Structure formats: structure tokens, C-alpha cells
TrEMBL record:
The organism's place on the tree of life at top rank: Eukaryota
Protein localization: Secreted
Pfam families cross-referenced by the UniProt entry: C8, TIL, VWD
Keyword Cytoplasm included in the entry's annotation: no
Protein name: Mucin-2-like
Keyword Nuclease applies: no
Length: 499
């Protein structure tokens, strides 16, 4: 029934039929009923599936939790015109009491600039080649923006019949209560203006009601509409089975007929892209239509795909796609058999060429050694082998009998200060130290040599002195044993002193 909307309400033995004249916007069956979106010069799709046109150029509330006095989220968008093109200049998102601001060049949280990716208080903000993604999983909302004209908001089922804004009330019933309230018809212009955010010193003007007349289906030229119909029917059968394309044909025809570009190809890109995204969300598989028009360029050696899971395997996270729970979407992806090099930024490479990173970048096959572990970089992952470090001992006994670290024993009678060991750190973490011994003839046996004192130099600024009478000095100050500091422990046993 063209031009009419029919509701049939059944209750017990009573059937009530409501028929409304309806000729200024089109319905889309709700295959993606958790998603609201806006795109192009003036197009909007509500959670409940209504597609309508609203050309306002102010800041508007796109979606908000309107249940209770303490909303969990709010999403505002600012639409503006620049050289004849309509785009989203910024998005303002409030999650509980935290305010996020997104524009094309930067992101802030509570007025503080943050770098991407950004993770804070259950919120994840990331960017890809074409989108900025904002996800607050605890609250149950995802926002995606293509940095130009298209914004998508997805909410969980917990918000059914609890939202407001240009996205509608999410009550599962098209038209109610957005465009028909209390039995009266409301135009998209009136509906859109009601969600304007009134800012101080903001002089943007509301669109007039009569502007809405130009967007009625009867005012769209048949040549524009026929062209788009022919294009959609050519290879979009998977999408047309999931989504009624009529509303998007209408939106696309509006774009084409209002376009100032001499070639119509670029004028249809926005709505065609949106229909493709909606198709992906509904479970369809859009064709690779950009080979004919609206081409996308990818960085590095990545390739563009119209519908794929957005989780990208990288050298440091090689199993990301296996655990991906995100919706399919268009974007730049690595060819099969490759992963993205997120270490040296070389684009898509075979997994076997992935490097590893610790204190520096290691190529596959290179070894990193630390203490008693050898780690080999293999296809972007460390493979480590542990081994026991041999303990080397140097000893001085009875003041004249020496054993070297290599196990060589010899006898030496001295009468001076001697360096027993001078050790420099090889890893930068172990301390440098020097041990010096004072050898003198023994008091009772003057032909024998006794160890009178040991001096331990730690780094360049600490000196410990041990004397044969049991006195210990730290930087010439006598210590009381046992002695504990952050890195040093000195205690006396029955026959020996331990450090």
C-alpha cells in the first residue's frame, strides 16, 4: 500500500486497525535494530528503522539514555557546511560523568588531550584507516565515525524504550513515537529541531518546515531514481534480501539531484557506503562495488575490503581475528597469510618476518641474553631457554692461601694493600665493585701473614670497611650489626661475617 502506514493491534477478541497517510519518509525493516546512523547531507536512520531527512546545521543530541534522572550516556553531533559539503565537525560523548570530545585531529577526555589508542574507565577509543571507534562496553554503547559525514551508534538491548534524540526511542515500533505522537503527524524537520542543543552565543538557524517539501518522493526526478535502482539491483541481491533498499534509493536520488558535481558518481558515495554498512550489520555480504566508483586508498600494502571483521592480526597480537566479536565493516586489511607489522611499521608481512622488541628491535633468529636466560626471536614471539649460571668463588684463607675464580690455588705472603677483585657490570643492573685486602705479618707469628682488613667499594660512592676485630664501617661511620638497608644486609655469625 504505497503512501500509507498500517498498524494492527490485537488484544483478546478485539482488533484495532490504524491507517495513517504517510508520504514523506521511508521505512527500513529492522534487521539492525540496535544501530542508529546518520550520513550524507541530511540522512538519518533511527534504532527502529525509520529513514528520514533532516538538513539542520547545528549541534544535536543524536542518542541519549533518557531513563531516569542520571543518564548513562549521551551522544551529540555538530553538523556544518564547508564549501557546499555537509560533514560532522565534532562528536561530544558523555559516559556517566566523563566527557569525551572527538574531532578530526584530536580526542580529549574531560578537556585533557589523549593519544590513540586510549583506554580509560571502561572506555576504549581507537582509530583505523577510515574510522574512529569509541566503545564503552560496561555502559553498552559503541560509536563509530568516518571522520567525515557518517556516524553510527549501537546500543545494547538494555536501552529498549529508554532512548531519545535523533535516533529515536528504541521501542521497536517504527514511526511511534518519533513522527506520530498522540495521533498527530510530526514532520522530520520538527522532530529534528526538537533535539537541537542550545549553546551560548550559537547563532545557527533551524531549517524551515517548508524546506521539507523538496525531499518528498514525488519531488525526486525519475531519472535520478531510475539510475540508482538500476545500480542497486545489479549485484546487491545479498543485501536486498536483508534490507529493503527503497529508503536508500530515495536518499541516494536526493544526493544525486542536489549534487553540484558535474559527474554523478561521487554524489552517490555516501549513501551507497551507508547501505553497504547496513548490509554488513544485517548479515549480508555487499559486493566489491568500489571498483566501479568511490574508490578507497589504503596505506602500505594493505587492501580494501567492503565487509570484513575489523580485528587485525599484528606481529605482537597474532591471534586477534580468532577472538574478534566486532561487527563486519569496511576498511583496510592485510592479505591472507600476512600480518601487520606494528613494530617497524613495514605494512603487511609474512608472519615469519615478524620481529621482536625488548630493549631494542630483534630480527627473527636473533638472541637476547639476560642473566640465566637465552631468548630467541621466532616469528614475532620469544622462545626462551633457562640455564643455571655457574658460581665462581675467590677465597683468601689464613692471610696467605689464595684460590682464584678459576680454581687455581697458591700461597702469597704480603705486607700491603692488595686488590682481590675488580668487577664491572655487564648488564647495567648488577653493581660495579672492588674488594681490597690489607695483609700484614701476624702479631703472634710474625713469619705468617694475616688478613687485617677488607675494604669493599660499591659503585663509586659507597665504601664498607671490615676489620679483624669485628668492626664494620660504612663511609667511615661505625655500624651496629645486624645492619639492613634497601640493598645491603650485614650480619655476624659465630665465626664469620656475612655481607
Amino acid at each position: 500500500m504505497d503512501g500509507f502506514l498500517v498498524f494492527i493491534l490485537c488484544r483478546e477478541n478485539i482488533s484495532i486497525i490504524y491507517i495513517f497517510l504517510f508520504n514523506f519518509f521511508f521505512l527500513v525493516r529492522n534487521h539492525v535494530n540496535n544501530i542508529c546512523s546518520t550520513w550524507g547531507t541530511q540522512h538519518f536512520k533511527t534504532f527502529d528503522g525509520d529513514v528520514y531527512q533532516f538538513p539542520g546545521l547545528c549541534e544535536y543530541n543524536l542518542a541519549k539514555d533518557c531513563h531516569g534522572s542520571d543518564p548513562k550516556f549521551s551522544v551529540n553531533v555538530k553538523r556544518e557546511e564547508n564549501d557546499g559539503n555537509i560533514a560532522i565537525s565534532y562528536i561530544s560523548i558523555t559516559i556517566n560523568e566523563n566527557a569525551f570530545y572527538l574531532n578530526k585531529s584530536h580526542v580529549t577526555e574531560n578537556s585533557k588531550l589523549v593519544s590513540l589508542p586510549h583506554y580509560s574507565r571502561g572506555v576504549k577509543v581507537e582509530e583505523s584507516a577510515f574510522y574512529i571507534s569509541f566503545q564503552a562496553s560496561r555502559v553498552g554503547i559503541t560509536v563509530m565515525w568516518n571522520r567525515e559525514d557518517a556516524v553510527m551508534v549501537e546500543v545494547s538491548n538494555n536501552y529498549r524504550n529508554k532512548t531519545c534524540g535523533l535516533c529515536g526511542d528504541f521501542n521497536g515500533v517504527p514511526v511511534y513515537d518519533e513522527f506520530i505522537a498522540n495521533g498527530f503527524k510530526i514532520s522530520p524537520i520538527e522532530f529534528g529541531n526538537s533535539h537541537k542543543i542550545h549553546l551560548p552565543n550559537d547563532d545557527c538557524k533551524d531549517p524551515y518546515e517548508d524546506e521539507d517539501e523538496s525531499w518528498k518522493p514525488g519531488n525526486v526526478s525519475s531519472s535520478c531514481k531510475n539510475f540508482v535502482k538500476a545500480f542497486l539491483s545489479k549485484s546487491w541481491s545479498s543485501c536486498n534480501e536483508q534490507i529493503d533498499p527503497e529508503a536508500y534509493i530515495h536518499a541516494c536520488a536526493i544526493d544525486m539531484c542536489a549534487c553540484n558535481n558535474s559527474t554523478n558518481d561521487s554524489c552517490v558515495c555516501s549513501t551507497m557506503s551507508e547501505f553497504s554498512r547496513q548490509c554488513s550489520h544485517a548479515g549480508g555480504q555487499p559486493p566489491d562495488w568500489r571498483s566501479q566508483l568511490c574508490a578507497k586508498q589504503c596505506p602500505y600494502n594493505m587492501r580494501y575490503e567492503e565487509s570484513a571483521f575489523p580485528c587485525v592480526d599484528t606481529c605482537t597480537h597474532q591471534e586477534t581475528r580468532l577472538m574478534c566479536e566486532d561487527h563486519k565493516i569496511d576498511g583496510c586489511f592485510c592479505p591472507d597469510g600476512t600480518v601487520f607489522d606494528d613494530i617497524s611499521e613495514r605494512g603487511c608481512i609474512p608472519r615469519s618476518e615478524c620481529q621482536c622488541k625488548h630493549d631494542r628491535i630483534y630480527n627473527s633468529g636473533e638472541v637476547y641474553r639476560q642473566e640465566n636466560t637465552n631468548c630467541t626471536c621466532s616469528k614475532g614471539k620469544w622462545e626462551c631457554d633457562s640455564f643455571e649460571t655457574p658460581v665462581a668463588t675467590c677465597a683468601v684463607e689464613e692471610g696467605s692461601h689464595f684460590t682464584t675464580f678459576d680454581g687455581t690455588a697458591y700461597t702469597f705472603h704480603g705486607n700491603c694493600r692488595y686488590t682481590l677483585a675488580n668487577v664491572e657490570s655487564k648488564d647495567g643492573t648488577s653493581p660495579n665493585f672492588t674488594i681490597r685486602a690489607l695483609l700484614e705479618p701476624c702479631a703472634q707469628q710474625k713469619y705468617d701473614t694475616c688478613l687485617k682488613a677488607l675494604k669493599l667499594h660499591l659503585h663509586d660512592d659507597h665504601v664498607l670497611m671490615f676489620t679483624s676485630d669485628g668492626t664494620v664501617q660504612h663511609d667511615q661511620k661505625i655500624l651496629t650489626l645486624p645492619y639492613f638497608s634497601g640493598t645491603e644486609t650485614i650480619k655476624k655469625t659465630h665465626f664469620t661475617m656475612l655481607f
